[in-house]
Write a structure and sequence with these properties.
alpha/beta, six-stranded parallel β-sheet, two-stranded antiparallel ribbon, 9 helices
């Protein structure tokens, strides 16, 4: 698989109906913080959260597929309205295939962003394979697109922008964000 640009990349992104995301190294910077009682802590970027919300607002489903299990991930997914949260998945491709079958979405209509070797079986199967700027070279060589931002620092937002622009939905969402809320006008 070769990295794509231009119209070939836009065609792939235009077909996306579901975006799958790894967590550690994609939604986070990949570092794990441990508290005094052994609890793991993770940091999430709000820009990535807005990217996920924009995808969902455009009718594009979002799923989390991760090899680790964490209450923090479940809480963040709930906060973002993501109901497809698959944790503790050692075989991410089989998990994603089950998820796609349930959603009625083909692999060609799926984008997936992963950052390392455990994601390769999924990345080599989906219609739009994406990774983060700080992924290992062997992963970068096997995806269609590399985000300009590193994991946990806006890479998911970059992917959302790519998909929404390819589908002609970006400008309408931006225009909607520029409109003052009706309640603000009534009270202003």
């Amino acid at each position: 698989m070769a990295r794509m640009t231009g119209s070939a990349l836009v065609r792939r992104a235009a077909r996306v109906r579901l975006v799958g995301l790894d967590v550690d190294g994609v939604l986070t910077d990949g570092r794990l913080y441990f508290g005094a009682r052994g609890e793991a802590l993770k940091a999430f970027d709000v820009r990535d959260g807005l990217g996920i919300r924009l995808l969902r607002d455009a009718g594009i489903d979002v799923a989390v597929v991760t090899g680790r299990s964490s209450r923090i991930v479940a809480a963040r997914a709930r906060d973002l309205g993501i109901d497809k949260v698959m944790q503790g998945q050692r075989d991410k491709r089989a998990c994603l295939q089950r998820l796609l079958a349930q959603a009625g979405v083909s692999e060609g209509e799926c984008a997936y962003m992963g950052d390392d070797w455990p994601d390769l079986p999924v990345l080599t199967a989906v219609g739009l394979a994406a990774t983060v700027a700080d992924a290992p070279e062997e992963v970068k060589r096997r995806v269609h697109w590399v985000a300009p931002s590193p994991g946990g620092r806006g890479a998911v937002r970059d992917l959302a922008r790519l998909v929404l622009r390819a589908q002609g939905r970006f400008d309408a969402l931006l225009q909607s964000a520029l409109q003052p809320a009706a309640s603000e006008l009534a009270h202003g």
